Amino acid sequence: MAWVLKMDEVIESGLVHDFDASLSGIGQELGAGAYSMSDVLALPIFKQEDSSLPPENEPKHPPFQYVMCAATSPAVKLHDETLTYLNQGQSYEIRMLDNRKAGDIPEINGKLVKSIIRVVFHDRRLQYTEHQQLEGWKWNRPGDRLLDLDIPMSVGVIDIKTNPSQLNAVEFLWDPTKCTSAFIQVHCISTEFTPRKHGGEKGVPFRIQVDTFKQTENGEYTDHLHSASCQIKVFKPKGADRKQKTDREKMEKRTAHEKEKYQPSYDTTILTECSPWPDTPTTFVNNSPTPAPTFTSAQHSTYSVPDSNSSSPNHQGDGTSQGSGDQLHPSATIQETQQWLLKHRFSTYTRLFSNFSGADLLKLTREDLVQICGPADGIRLYNALKSRSVRPRLTIYVCQEPSRSIQLERQDTGNGDNSNGAIYVYHAIYLEEMAASEVTRKLALAFNIPLHQINQVYRQGPTGIHILVSDQMVQNFQDESCFLFTTIKAENEGFHIILK
User: Distance between CA atoms of 155 and 103, rounded to whole angstroms?
Assistant: First the structure.
């Protein structure tokens, strides 16, 4: 007992002679020399250790726990870190659990915390060259991210943010008192960072790390609370399942004595505590006064579904096919490339292509653009880069009557049919739709006529009659037909156009 140990200390220290005097003093205070054992033990020399204090070797109780719903490998030896196999692009749940005891970190009660999930290298050698490794991966797979959050599958995550310059990290806010699950997708595979030699190279391991922060007085989430990580390897789709099966079959072939040296396979992977990632969390906040890339909310992130205005493949309002001046040239600078994207209604992707020159963008294949921008905008961007304008369904040539036409004086007035020395200048009208409204709109654009002032378009028929131009009439126009047109004032405001 503790008091016996204290007594031994007293005897060894030479204070045993003072012991009787101490007892006598207690007896006098209690009256008639009566004292109890509890009174004796209350002496400073007999004071017991506070049993409420945890022993020094008791592990620290972490405030949070993160559990990834993926089985660990059975081919890991005892006392080694667990290893988990993941499939490329597959969604895996990470459960964010509040593990606090009563009274722990009371300042976050009723408040949100911020967590940053990263996929990083496990090998120290690759950690030193992480920037170069990720830049090389980014160059080979433009527009892709190493780590994504499956937003529709996730539960309880708020204010999700991604950063175009941090392809291996996502961040979000969450309430520790509520059920929270973040579904992650890892898009890089372990063999992408292995030097190619003869095939069948062993892939490098990664780590999934979660760093959690609380809010400071100035409103920023920079006060570190907890960090944990686990070791993973990423395979091509279905590859992780095959690897797990192979490891299981190997273990079944081992003897019972050999199996004792290995860990069992668990259905889930518990992330173990670790040091916080050295990147400061200020990298992830959105209040930087500089124009450098910052995190943007998921509703406006690079990989969100673009709004209907930005992705709608409506035709340009110029009435003509795309000219050579609209082409993106390989010599275009980054700034000129950004302007070209804005001009052609690809503003949603300006942040994604913020470091692309004209040559960089033109190197992307159709498949690359479809993968980056999705099928609709990917094909539209590819056609715009290759100057593939919509082939018109019908072409007609239109000229105003001499009274309002543009006249060019010939230097040689003795040329044949045009005795007045002038020629008629025709405009090519390209119709993508075989409709009367399309004819009206393109005429207004070609001749700078306010569209709202054109009441009707007629075609002059036999004996000078005026026939209303309908959709059916346009569908029966011959390709490359020529028309003269004149205008007559309408009874109300505006005028009619007569095609001859």
Answer: 26
